[in-house]
Amino acid sequence: MTDTRLTTPFNARSTAADVVAGADLTGQRAIVTGASSGIGVETARALATAGAEVTLAVRDVRAGERTAREIRAAATNRLVRVAPLDLSNQRSVAAFVADWDGPLHILVNNAGVSATPEMRTAEGWELQFATNHLGHFALANGLHRALAAAGRARVVSLSSIAHVQAPMVFEDVNFRERRYDRLLAYGESKTATALFAVEANRRWAGDGITVNAANPGAVATNLGRHLTEEDYAHLPAYDFKTPQQGAATSVLLAAGPQLEGIGGRYFEDCGQAVRHRPETPLRGVAAHATDPAAAARLWQLSLDLLAGVHDA
């Protein structure tokens, strides 16, 4: 982890609108996955308000179109479009990439699923790992040329404090040998999204692409629809944010001038996270989520899994 911790004028209560106030993203193109609900909507809204051309990459195109119309009206920005993307389906990811044309300045890997019952993709991959990590991994790699063409492009990878108790079990990322634990599976998928930022930034910095991870904090959105009352009883006492506050860190990483040239780091509450400590269970980043060796290992594992799909 970098010794010099980056701080900004913003904090846990700042909103996406606060972060983007005064920014001019005219001429920049952005993709926000999962932008039909929750913090994805607010991330897309803030970028569009600042003048960016924003593509809402969503599973539910009808919901995406409703969101796009509302953003266009509120942001007075007509450059808001919708494209279908199911991150659990590699054919859908490949189709989205094939349809993209021209440079890409901002990619926000926002979409996710959480605490699902045991479910698997067509490839047999555990759904949360497949959606939260592998889908975004394939998307970002597929769009690498577009990101490089933009010059000074930024990628934001959403993680979660749930990563803290869930280092990667590389020998069984898809829970084929272990008893399935939906909360642990979610945590591991979010360790994976943090490690993605470390290795992607190392590989792509030379192309002018910076990649950072963001923990948006606890936000009451559809992401928690699979959590039961019993689950909530065992969870820590989160200080919940509004969706607008939850989107602030993502927007900061995507558009804040403070992040120019900064990559490979993990942020929360609009600042670089401190190292996680047991006495502050709801803050910080665990060492296993920023470990360069683990990040490189995950990258190769992800390539191998995707290669198996293309070879089939």
Explain this structure.
This protein is α/β, with parallel strands linked by helices and about 300 residues long. It has helices at about 15-20, 40-50, 60-75, 90-100, 125-140, 145-150, 180-205, 230-235, 245, 250-255, 290-310, and strands at about 30-35, 55-60, 80-85, 105-110, 155-160, 210-215, 265-270, 270. The chain contains 11 helices and 8 strands. α2 (about 40-50) runs parallel beside α3 (about 60-75), α5 packs parallel to α7 (about 180-205) and α7 (about 180-205) crosses α11 (about 290-310).
Summarize the structure.
The protein has 312 residues and is an alpha/beta fold. It has helices spanning 16-20, 38-49, 61-75, 90-99, 127-142, 144-150, 182-204, 229-234, 243-246, 248-255, 292-311, and strands at residues 29-33, 53-58, 80-84, 106-109, 153-158, 209-215, 266-268, 271-272.
Total strand count, please? Answer: 8
Gyration radius (Cα, Å) is 18 Å
Secondary-structure element order, N to C: HEHEHEHEHHEHEHHHEEH
Spatial strand sequence of the major β-sheet? 3-2-1-4-5-6-7-8
Strand content: 5-15%
Q: Pick out the low-confidence regions.
A: none
Approximate helicity band: 40-55%
Task: Tell the overall outline.
Answer: globular
